[in-house]
Amino acid sequence: MADHDSPISLSPSGGSIARAxxxxxxxxxxxxxxxxxxxxxxxxxxGFAIDVIIVTTILMLVTRFQLINVWNLKTWEESTHxxxxxxxxxxxxxxxxxxxxxxxxxRSLGQRSMGLAVVxxxxxxxxxxxxxxxxxxxxxxxxxVVNIIVGAYEVARxxxxxxxxxxxxxxxxxxxxxxxxxxxxxxxxxR
Length: 191
Hints:
By secondary structure, this protein is mainly α. 52% of the residues lie in helices and 5% in strands. The protein has one domain (35-186). Strands 1-2 form a two-stranded antiparallel sheet.
């Protein structure tokens, strides 16, 4: 009897049959930390909207509402250099916000309000370089019309992947999960 597989052992990993099937299908991909609940597109989108509202409101107050001209087509026609300056301020501020909140809290304030955290694929803390790339790639969501197309595509990717990763997540090698579902060892750095 030692020369054949035991009929009692359904999964060599000792986990559930579903986990074994996912592991077999995605053997070239990483395993999620045990018990991790991945963030839905709705929670992620709501967190992003909160972030944009926070940064844009601060910028509007600081610029005495002159930043509104970044979306004014007439300003683009009359004074391109002012519009480019406003665009640079808007993009740089968002990039800096996402980078700094990521490094300090392992998530943005919008993600924090939704109970989410961003970690590396193995559940460890993300590096500064990962936050740089992630913040830079998120800037595409601030470009009118392009943001709708890219956003719809990314939401579809979240639903298609068992890891709920967008293309940004794949390129940075990160996951967005419910902060409290991460194992204690993986959430020490989350504030």
